[in-house]
UniProtKB/TrEMBL annotation:
Single GO MF descriptor: UDP-3-O-[(3R)-3-hydroxyacyl]-glucosamine N-acyltransferase activity
Protein name as catalogued: UDP-3-O-acylglucosamine N-acyltransferase
UniProt domain UDP-3-O-[3-hydroxymyristoyl] glucosamine N-acyltransferase non-repeat region: residue ranges: 21-89
Record's keyword annotation contains Zinc: no
Gene Ontology biological process terms, A to Z: lipid A biosynthetic process
Function noted in UniProt: Catalyzes the N-acylation of UDP-3-O-acylglucosamine using 3-hydroxyacyl-ACP as the acyl donor. Is involved in the biosynthesis of lipid A, a phosphorylated glycolipid that anchors the lipopolysaccharide to the outer membrane of the cell.
Organism of derivation: Aequorivita ciconiae
């Protein structure tokens, strides 16, 4: 896709300083840009690059003052960083704007779908599934029976949505995501073998949820596993049966949440965190990467370590346990002196 400086300025409500007809077709960092690329300058540490950048167009703040000659066309905006983010979103929408049903696909006769559907080749739409308007279903996506998906949601290649799942509006489901597979439920019998406990619940994904590639969200044993609106899940996360994740909580990659745990709203959870089952995690909680959570957590706590401690207590303790070999050696020396007296 190609845009002129004038077109971009119109999108961003900015003003052009230079050649309004210069064309760009690529986005780049300011230090790496070449002819035909668009970049931006927001951080003052990168100001020196604007005088050497080969990018055809650079987005800058209104108050930017050049102290040397420039070869790049400027687009002045109120906030360069926000404007560039806005442009990325616009670019993404244009790039992903597809409609129509490719062949071959399977659409059940009892399924319903809205306007401007895109359904890529080799996708499957099950019995009584209901799909909203402007939904994009990329190739090789499986959507099971009785699934409902709201408006403006995107399901990328290879996503698997099991039966009874409910997905809201404006969600992004990335490649390899599995939603609604059976929860991990087994019970031992008298022979020491494990019998499967039927998982008859579902998964509910509310509006504006992003789910990264390879993440799995299990259906509830009974009732629903619930991901509330605004939640952002990174890659390769495991959410077990009957978990609830509160509004606008973000979770980084490779985190696992065991069954029936309730996580509050506005939490920030780092990568490779392990959270045990049947816990209650409060609102506004921050959990540092690689922490292990084995207890209930109150609102506004910040935790680190495994098992996790209060963040400040962890840092105080770290001063000591990083020196444990030295401390042990000193204790041994003291014991030997006492024994020799």
């Amino acid at each position: 896709m190609k845009f002129t400086a004038g077109q971009i300025a119109e999108i961003l409500n900015g003003t052009v300083e230079g050649d309004e007809d210069v064309v760009v077709s690529d986005l780049a960092k300011i230090e790496e840009g070449g002819k035909g690329s668009l970049t931006f300058l927001a951080n003052p540490k990168y100001t020196h690059y604007i005088y050497s950048t080969k990018s055809s167009i650079t987005i800058v703040n209104q108050d930017f003052v050049a102290t040397n000659e420039l070869s790049t066309t400027l687009i002045r905006v109120e906030n360069a960083y926000k404007a560039f983010s806005q442009l990325l979103e616009y670019y993404n929408q244009v790039k992903n704007h597809k409609t129509g049903v490719e062949n071959p696909v399977f659409i059940s006769e009892s399924a319903e779908y809205g306007e401007n559907l895109y359904m890529g080749a080799f996708s499957y739409l099950g019995e009584k599934a209901k799909i909203g308007d402007n939904v994009k279903i990329y190739p090789n996506v499986y959507i099971g029976d009785n699934v409902s998906i709201g408006n403006n949601t995107i399901l990328f290649t290879g996503a698997r949505i099991y039966s009874e799942t409910k997905i809201g509006n404006s969600c992004v489901i990335n490649s390899g995501v599995v939603i609604g597979a059976d929860g991990f439920g087994f019970t031992p019998n008298e022979q020491g073998e494990y019998n499967k406990v039927p998982q008859i619940g579902n998964v509910v994904i509310e509006d504006n949820v992003d789910i990264g590639p390879g993440t799995t969200i299990d259906r509830a044993t009974m009732g629903s596993t619930i991901i509330k609106k605004g939640v952002k899940l990174d890659n390769q996360i495991q959410i077990a049966h009957n978990v609830t994740i509160g509004e606008n909580t973000v979770i980084a990659a490779q985190t696992g949440v065991a069954g029936s745990t309730k996580i509050g709203k506005n939490c920030i959870i780092g990568g490779q965190v392990g959270i045990a089952g049947h816990l209650i995690i409060g609102d506004n909680v921050k959990i540092q990467a690689q922490s292990g959570i084995s207890r209930n957590v109150k609102d506004n706590e910040t935790l680190q370590g495994s098992p996790a401690l209060n963040y400040a207590d962890f840092n105080k303790s770290y001063v000591y346990f990083k020196n444990l070999p030295k401390i042990a050696e000193r204790l041994n020396t003291v014991e030997k002196r006492i024994d020799n007296e």
